[in-house]
Structures are given as C-alpha cells and as structure tokens.
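> example.struct
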C-alpha cells in the first residue's frame, strides 16, 4: 500500500480530523516533518484542510538558523502560511498558534519514535499510560505517521525527490533517545527480531487498558468526591477500600480536576499522600508541588489550593 493510501485509510477509518479542519503542522525540516507536510498537502483539497507550517527553533545548534530558513522557504514554495518561534517550550508555542487559529496540531512522530518512547518510559519505570506511548489523537494533537516506519518515510521522500535537513546531533549517543535508538534497540532486536511488532502491539494493549482505567477512575471519583471552591474532598473509607493502584489513580484524577494537570506529581508525592491517609491524627497536612495542599480531617481527605484552615487557628 502506498504511503498516501495508508494515511487516507487511517483518516477514513478513524474519521480524523474532520473535513474543514485547520491544521498547524510542526515542521523541523527533518525527513519526517518534510514528508508529513507534503503528504497533508496532497490531501488538503480532498479533505478541505487549511495548513499552516509552524517551526520551533531550539537555538541549541549552530545550524538551527539555517533549519529555520529552510522551513520558511519550504512553506513559501508550497504556498503555505509560516509561523516560527525560538526559546519557548515547543508545545506551548504550538498550542498558542493552534488557539489563535482554532486548529489541530499535527506532528511527524513515526512508529520508530513510538518504539523509542515506549522503551524510554519502560526504563524510567513508567506505568500504564507511559507504556501506551503516544496516541494517534491526543486532545488537539494529531500524529498521522505513528503507524508508519522511518524506512517508509525515507522511501516516500526518495520517490518524490524531496529535500530535507539532517540534524547531526541525531547521531550523538550522549543524548538518551539517541542512545536507545543506536545502541539499545539494535541489541534488543538480537534477542527478538520481531521487537517492533511486539512493542507496538503491547503499546496498543496498554492504550486500551489506560482508557479503561480512566473510565473506572472517573466512576469511582464521582462516588467519593465532593467539590468546594478551590478544594475537593474524598471519602477516606471509600478511598482506602481501593487497591493501591486505583487509589493512586483517583488521587491523580482529583489533582487534575483541581488544577488541570498532574505535572510534577511523582511516586514520592503519592507515597506522602498515603501517609496522610494512614495518619491516626485528626488534623494532618502536607504541601504538594504546584502549591497544592492535602489534608486529613476526620474521615475526609482534602486537596486544596489554600492552606488548610485549621493551620491558622
């Protein structure tokens, strides 16, 4: 199956993104993102998409300015709008552009990137969500090449004689992802030549499991949570009846409900919350990252944006 046909098949089967969608395409100038923008442009008329090329300049390499110039010229030659930024968090920049244009962000992550991400997350001790890797569609981020290999991408680029930029740092194994790509993955393939298929299949299983856990966590949260202004209280008895895994999931879900994310909350913080849960004292508390407070008050576990009132008495 041709690469473009594979992409069309994915769109038609999953109905994403819908016709008429504005797409902000992240283009670094490398082979994956160059192939991505050419593929999307070939489908733009059929699906009534409006494309914008977005380039993020990390300014970490001497050649980064030439990368930016290459992408700007590419966008101009293709007749596409171009936006760029430097020294910002990459996804913050893309989200800002997407909000202004009410658009979907599109990135060029491939099956190879998915494999490396799953292995990296495994080595970090990641849980179910981490082992699921990246999703094809994650909120407003679309990754249409996630089931397509780097070899297929390079064949497409060669076939259509497309030019792209080479990042020389991709060969430097002092970077963890490169070390996994050039050293760890080849070694694992010696153990199992079907490594790619196994890891990608497992990632899909983990993604399904993560979806189930998410649904179950939301159900449990509704049964034990009471919301107040800038605070959420959980029924301690019901929370303690859960297995540790689900108990932690409910805690993380509560934190996301309160502040919109669980950034900076690590296993060590969940362990601290568990100590508060297990405390025999009537009024105990702990401050968490993100200026959050957790407290135990006579059968209720509270998560709040303010210091528990009993501390000021």
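> example.seq
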């Amino acid at each position: 199956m041709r690469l473009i046909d594979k992409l069309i098949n994915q769109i038609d089967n999953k109905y994403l993104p819908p016709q008429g969608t504005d797409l902000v395409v992240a283009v670094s100038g490398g082979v994956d993102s160059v192939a991505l923008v050419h593929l999307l442009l070939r489908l733009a008329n059929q699906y009534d998409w409006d494309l914008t090329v977005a380039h993020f300049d990390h300014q970490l390499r001497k050649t980064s300015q030439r990368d930016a110039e290459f992408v700007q010229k590419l966008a101009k030659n293709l007749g596409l709008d171009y936006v760029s930024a430097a020294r910002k968090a990459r996804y913050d920049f893309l989200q800002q552009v997407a909000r202004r244009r009410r658009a979907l962000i599109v990135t060029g992550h491939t099956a190879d990137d998915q494999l490396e991400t799953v292995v990296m997350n495994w080595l970090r001790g990641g849980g179910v969500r981490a082992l699921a890797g990246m999703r094809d569609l994650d909120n407003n981020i679309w990754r249409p090449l996630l089931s397509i290999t780097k070899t297929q991408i390079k064949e497409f680029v060669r076939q259509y004689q497309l030019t792209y930029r080479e990042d020389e740092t991709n060969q430097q194994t002092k970077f963890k992802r490169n070390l996994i790509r050039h050293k760890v993955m080849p070694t694992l393939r010696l153990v199992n030549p079907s490594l790619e298929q196994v890891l990608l299949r497992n990632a899909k299983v983990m993604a399904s499991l993560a979806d189930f856990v998410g649904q179950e966590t939301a159900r449990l949260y509704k049964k034990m949570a009471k919301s107040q202004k800038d605070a959420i209280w959980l029924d301690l008895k019901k929370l303690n009846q859960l297995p540790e895994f689900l108990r932690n999931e409910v805690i993380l879900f509560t934190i996301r409900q309160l502040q919109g994310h669980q950034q900076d909350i690590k296993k060590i913080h969940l362990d601290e919350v568990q100590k508060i849960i297990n405390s025999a004292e009537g009024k105990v508390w702990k401050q968490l990252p993100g200026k959050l407070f957790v407290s135990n008050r006579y059968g209720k576990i509270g998560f709040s944006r303010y210091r528990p009132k009993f501390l000021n008495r």
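> remarks
The chain has two domains: 3-198, 229-312.
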